Please model this.
Amino acid sequence: MSKLWFLWVMCLLLVAVDCQSTHPTEVTALRQIRQSLFDEDNNLNNWRRGDPCASNWTGVLCFNTTLNDSFFHVRELQLLNLNLSGTLSPALGQLAYMEILDFMWNKITGSIPREVGQLTNLQLLLLNGNQLTGSLPEEIGFLPNLDRIQIDQNFISGPIPKSFANLNKTKHFHMNNNSLSGPIPSEISRLPSLVHMLLDNNNLSGTLPPELSQLPSLLILQLDNNHFDGIIPPSYANMSKLLKLSLRNCTLQGPIPDLSSIPDLAYIDLSNNNLNGSIPNMRLSNDTTTVDLSRNQLTGNIPPIFSRLPNLQRLSLFNNSLNGTVPSNIWQDKTLNASQQLTVDVENNNISGVSGSLILPANVNVSLQGNPACLNPNASMLAFCGSALSLVSHLQSIPSNSTDNCPAGCPDGYELAPGSPTPCFCAAPLYIGYRLKSPGFSDFQAYFYSFEVYLTSGLQIRQFQLDLTHEWEKGPRLKMNLKIFPVFEGPNSSVFNTSELLRIRSMFTQWQIPDSEIFGPYELLNFTLRGPYIQFLPNPSSSSGISKGAVAGIVIGAIFGAVVLSAGVSLYILKVHRKKYYAVSKRRRVSRASVKIEGVKSFTYEEMKRATNNFDVASEVGQGGYGKVYRGVFTDGTVVAIKRAQEGSLQGEKEFLTEIELLSRLHHRNLVSLLGFCDEGGEQMLVYEFMSNGTLRDHLSGKYKESLSFGMRLRIAYGSAKGILYLHSEADPPIFHRDIKATNILLDSKLIAKVADFGLSRLAPVADMEGIVPGHVSTVVKGTPGYLDPEYFLTHKLTDKSDVYSLGVVFLELLTGMHPITHGKNIVREVNVAYRSGMIFSVIDEKMGSYPSECVEKFVTLALKCCQEDTDQRPSMAEIARELENIRRMMPESESQTNDYMVTESGKHVSSDHSSSSTTKNPYVSSDISGSDLVSGVVPSITPR
Model:
């Protein structure tokens, strides 16, 4: 083991624990936490490969075997971005001295344990970027020292507990991008320290509490994309410290309140509501950068309040009923440099012209398109009648010193430091993913320099050490890729030393960089070590080789040497345990190889190798938690999809047995056929018919050049319903699928829909001794967020109507092209709102082309019936199939033809009379391994939600 790695572990131990040995209660808790998080082999692999956060975890685990008279106490658990997919153990509550709980950017499922409320020393609760479900525990509201709660970008539902009003030290509520529901508790107004309240992209309802105006320290109120009733409370004009007010798409009504009493308000977004009346003649701050009042029902003239605002970047008033003229003093006398711009968008109103000067300064764009002023514009108005340019650039880089004249290339892991005063300095940077969650501007170019100064001074580094690129994401949020370079101080200074590396990392992970008013709250997405820094990462295979000289060289003391040795013992025991597990698992799988399943062929491992050219990477068409999928060709020319489980995948083994058991006796035109399996040599493989046209989601996402017409979508819906009807009524015994979604509906060469992936399916209940059949199966909730039946989610009672709900969501996807959940917006709610307001055709997928409106209305009605919260109000699968058949009969003759179609490589739909599946040489693959793992092509990249 290198001395550098030893230093790395030592520093992490100092961060993670007190300088005593671990308390026995905490040792037990750590074992339980480890078991719940590292419950799948891929997690252990990630841990063993090494990551700075994983090293931290390794340091904590070391104390499981340390026995001394005094005790260490765990103060931090930081497991950032490790691809963990287990659950949070209730044993967390036993780590009584915990101050930082950080599990950001993993795939952790389950709910937040109530026992977290026992961590009375907890300051940072960081759970964002996972797949957590369930509701927020009331107990969190009684944590006396909590400074920050980040649960954003999960699937957490239910109300915001009123107990959160007790969090007197909490400054940051980051709960955006979840499924929180119910009203915002008015009791929250009692919080004296709250500065950031981010609740956007949820399902919150009720009225906006007027009491929120009593929050004495609030700087940012961001509630976009919720479903509130009533008006914006006039009391919000009393939020004297507010910097940003964002209430976009909240179904709010009534007038815009006069916000003149908020002296530093810089960002106002009230767009996409039902606000009416005129724009009040209020006084705006000189710091104002953004005013967005678009997509409302505002009337009257544009008041002079937007005139001569020195920092104004965007004024959006489009899609209202404003009249009169646009005052030119909004942009008049503005002198903007190359990094500044101003966009004034007043499209689609009743504006008759521009009052004042018609000369536009450089970098100013004004659009009056869709107004009477542009019906017959004269020459002087032409500049105002074009389309507004988007102010948000997708990717921009901070200008840096040129390295064009430097010798080509640096060693691997090193780059030319673009800002270094030392010419052609090759150095190893730190790579950091960073995001501004609620910036107070619309255009970042004007704030490049200010941001450099802010971040580098906060990190206590020099400005030329920072290099970055950025792009805007939905929210709007500003994502950045940072590179931080060391300073040239001699021939050996091209790499950060250990202490500096750890210092910079702790600045990000412990939020030690001071908050900024204009840049708002930030979050760390990743902290990546590459190149020469890999030597800092733990190498378990060499852990037993610590030299006495290295130990003696560390001033920390002999006790830490014992800790590191115990870490090696722990890792050795873990390795032996895993080898034994694999041996037992392999024997168990081999013992099943002789099992014969009627109607399903047992293939040999050699046959699988030949079909895939020894599992050549060129044959690989998909990858996921279960394993990899290959396109195989048998010696007789049959093309198949081969689903190969990764070694040690317990979840895969369960799905393997379930799918064989179920599919071996299911035979229907609209179900994917299982052709065989391979279960020998420690391998698990399933062999399916090959589906050359990908998944339904592929087509709805525009992966093909030609979109599906309404007639095609209706036929896909009908085929899917027929397949599920077979499961519910003709399979013996009946089957509940439990994971119906657009990626589990595959399309063959003729675009015939086939339901796939039965790894989560359950047999329907059977009659008891008295001949009574229970109406449900009680089971652990599994499935995909957005498709889950709400009643099943709450009661754990799985019924045939659970599949009906999921299929209803798929129908809504067919109609709209939307995803089930997009930035917290739920497709069922969105379509329901449009349907009730008589605006249903506004959400229909434009790519569908022309369609018979009466048929679409009936299809929408059926889909929404399927998605009723009350299971008794949902139709049965037989009723769904009958209604779809009726809609098909209503279709015009030109649309109701039942000719089969396929999609060629060019993406064109053609009659199957001229083609066959064998002509598709490079079919498509979806990124979802569960059902779409039976198709082929290129796996698209997956971005954070």
Summary: The domain at 601-689 is CATH 3.30.200.20 (Phosphorylase Kinase; domain 1).
